Structures are given as structure tokens and as C-alpha cells.
Amino acid sequence: METPTMKPDTVLILDYGSQYTHLITRRIRSLNVFSLVISGTSSLKSITSYNPRVVILSGGPHSVHALDAPSFPEGFIEWAESNGVSVLGICYGLQLIVQKLGGVVVEGESKEYGKMEIEVKGKSEIFGSESGGEKQMVWMSHGDEAVKLPEGFEVVAQSAQGAVAALESRKKKIYGLQYHPEVTHSPKGMETLRHFLFDVCGVSADWKMEDLMEEEIKVINKTVASDEHVICALSGGVDSTVAATLVHKAIGDRLHCIFVDNGLLRYKEQERVMDTFERDLHLPVTCVDASERFLSELKGVVDPETKRKIIGREFINIFDQFAQELEKKHGKKPAFLVQGTLYPDVIESCPPPGTDRTHSHTIKSHHNVGGLPKDMKLKLIEPLKLLFKDEVRELGRILNVPVGFLKRHPFPGPGLAVRVLGDVTQGNALEVLR
Predict the structure, then answer these.
(1) Active-site residue (options: 112, 125, 145, 182)
(2) Where along the chain is ATP bound (predicted)?
(3) Is 182 a catalytic residue?
(4) Are 250 and 228 in contact (CB under 8 A)?
(5) Is 276 marked as a binding-site residue?
(6) What is the pTM of this model?
């Protein structure tokens, strides 16, 4: 499915593997500014396609001296300057700017990790003209440090140990923070980000969830032809329910929901969820009890990643069968499958550094991303793929999903299978968990 049209004041984050990259995105969105994350090694064509007003280079676990150190593409700085795009480097991002523009970065004699006091030096754009001499506590996490700045740059803050804590080039509209302003351990960090975006870069705080909802509805209607049908896999969780409600708002009765009891659900989950769907949400839902099928496939399987793959595969097989039944009924087989994939699910499932991508290390493949078979016959519709969990709940409120349902405790698609440490069919492990 297409991605909604980007707003002109989009803040684009190039991800170099920082554990805080998601947090930067959320902090910016909390200011009503739309923000997205893409790989730090994306092509210039990819970066420019988002038409960003600001580009932020994230931190990361790398050293700029490593042979395979990730970097922005050739021509990126020139493009940003010529198009009036502001650039902010955070931690590794600062060091990358210094090195690529002719400065010097060395391994620090005394590495800075944890809380550290910095002092703002004179007038600066990124801290505000009245902040000279101000001291503040920030969160540092770096071993390398900038010792010589590129031409046209100046140091605007130093740490208590004398290291460069912030730099800027007003002419080039390029800025750098050696610390992490997005974490709560930097008490004035949000104030700095707010000042940078609104006062320095002139970004407008005009991103609203209602706008995204209307844009997603347009995209869904453009993707799904007027005579096509769509399947929605309802898990009973917040994400798939909000996704279904949104798609139903877009295409009405051409949406066909299915709830699969895979034998791995919580206590009386099927009864409770189906009651909510029918009584409160008025969504047409077919319930399929496939517990024996799933448990048979999982017999003897111990590895949690293998469990996820098996469960993802069986879900898709059931959806394909459901699609065939709908074809007999309506004369046309559904071509699309709706899933409640969220933004962190997509980023979380990316490959680790050193594999041509530079996102954070893969913790697990998400059941909506890494668990899907490559030969899946249904095309995906993922209307929530740009949202975080709290944003999904906000969208749900706008769509009048019951508040009690939106507050449900998250429950993963693989269910109790990944909470049983071993074979789920042995003994009475599932009943004990329930």
C-alpha cells in the first residue's frame, strides 16, 4: 500500500543504530511535528523524496574511524545547504558531520558516559541568544570526540571535562549535540529541541491525528478498487481493532474480518473478544477455531523464533482459505489483508549493522513483519505502520473505539507460545499460564 503524502514540515531522522532513535521520533511528534525514521545509509534520492524541512542524524554504536562506519550519501550536505534544509547531528551524528566536513574526531582520552554538566558558550542559535554561560545536566554516551571543527563551525557548549558538547554553523544551518536531548536524563533537552525546530528551523506545529486519518482513508480508497474486497485479521488487540475500524470507515462492508483462535490465547479470550466486536464495534467478524491445527504444527518446537515463523505461516494459510470461501460467496477473491503493524514493528525487524543496513540490532522478527511467508498471495494494507502505540490509541478515540478496549493490556500475536519456554504442547503449560 502507498505511504501517505509527506507534509512539507516533515522531520526526517537518519538512523545509525542508536537505542534512542524511536524516542527522538516520539519527542518530535509530541510537539505536533511529523517525524519519520529511515536508514542512515539511504540514498540521496530516497532522502529527498520525503521533502524534509529538517534532517536529524541519530547516534549509534559505531566509531567514525571504523572501515564500515555508516554515513550519509555523497552530496547530502550540498543538497541540504542549497535547499535550506537544517541538519542536526546527535552524538555519532555530530562526529559524522565533523569528520565528513574536514574536522578531526579522535578517540577520547576520558570517555563520557552518563550524566554530565555542560556550559553554553556565548550566544548561539541552537540554545538561544540569551543562554550564554548557562549550565545544564545532560546525558552523554560517547567514546570518540571532536577536537578540530570544520571551517565555518564554532563550539557553542563544552562539557565539564572540556569536550565539545555542541557546535553549529549558522551559515550552513548545520548543528550538532554530543549529548542526547531526547532522554529525560537531559532535563532541558526537550526545551532545546523545541527551540531548534520552531525558532531556528521555522517548523510549524500543524500535524494532527485527524489529518493522518483522513490521509490514510484516501490512500486505502486509492489502493482498493471499488469492486475489491479486503480481509482483516483481528487478534483482539488494540492495533488490529483500530486498523479494522479505520478500513471499515473507508470501504464499508467490503471489509471482512476474521478472528482466529490459535489455541494460544488468554483465559476466555475468544468469548470476551467476540462479544466486544459484536456488541460495541459492530464489525462483521467470522470466528475460526484452529487451535488443534496450530498446536499440532508447534508440537516439539522449542525455539521462540521458529514458533513465530510457524504461527505466522499458519495464520496466512487460514486467511487464504477464508479468502477462497469469500470468493465463492461474492464472486471475487479478496486481494488484500489488513494488519495492525506499527512503526516500531517495522524498524525493530530491520537487519543489524554490517548487513548493508544500519538500524539497531534485530531483537526478534515481528509476527506482522518477519513472520510472513514470501509467497503470500494477499497484498498487505497496514494503515497504522507510521504510528506508535499511544498514537494508535489516540486514533482509536477519534474513531470512537470504546475506551475500555483501547486500554487493554498488549498481547502479542504469537500469544502464549512465546511465553512458554519450550514445547507448548507438553504437560499443561498453557493452562497454567492462563
Answers:
(1) 182
(2) 235-241
(3) yes
(4) no
(5) no
(6) 0.77
